[in-house]
Design a protein that fits this description.
- This protein has about 260 residues and is mainly β.
- It has helices spanning about 55, 125-135, 185-190, 225-230, and strands spanning about 35-50, 65, 75-85, 100-110, 115-125, 140-150, 155-160, 170-180, 195-200, 200-210, 215-225, 240-255, 255-260.
Amino acid sequence: MPGRRSAATPPPRRAFRQRPVEDLTPLPPRPLRRVLFRQYWRDLVFLHWPADPFRVAGLLPPGTVPDLHQGRTYVGLVFFRMENLALGGMPPFPYLGSFGEVNVRLYSRDALGRRGVVFRSLDCDRLLPVLTARAGFGLPYQWSRIRTRWFDKRLLYTTSRRGDGRPGARAWLHIEDTPVVPGPLEEFLTCRWGLHERLGGRTYYLPNAHPAWTFRTCTLLDWEDGLVPAAGLPKPQGEPVSVLYAPGLPVCFGTPLRLPTP
């Protein structure tokens, strides 16, 4: 009969409405409902280059698209020390809770308007955190050798994945004590309050919260990178368009949130 749907005909799917993109804010736009784990990020170095949005789109989890700043998206190579990793309100893990990390990241947003990051790789020099993050969150961690050394006001990061012929990266900077006020591009790259990842056939959003960033004047003296091309993107050409150093801050992560099905 007219107007009656056959039992074999599936019901129409609900429209997937795009919401306004959340603002770039120096503090989290919303409090965490529950703290899943805590950590401290120390001596962060951010190197960024422009990336092709069409190339990036094919590397993001379903339900997300490249986030753009003035029509461009970016790939980041980020070095830092992780310290005091802890679950909920428990004390930090001894030894296993502190390690070096280097990640390659892209910038994403979802249909709910949430801006995030997508990690293409995360190099870590502790095996147990690598195995735990892979199994529990689907994050592409790699077991690597990472060294951090200070020479007065100069900071050197080096990393190489374990095994012969494995990719690596290096960053060598001069750091001053002078504060730096972030500009619009720096806010776009660092005011991120969650990550997008795929696990078990579904894309999820993992929110985080931390104090506002403080940056210091820095000069990039030398760098080398084999991690960005290993992550499926062209090897960076020329100097980074953005170089940042942050002394560190405490970070909390909340519970994962599933993206709505379109």
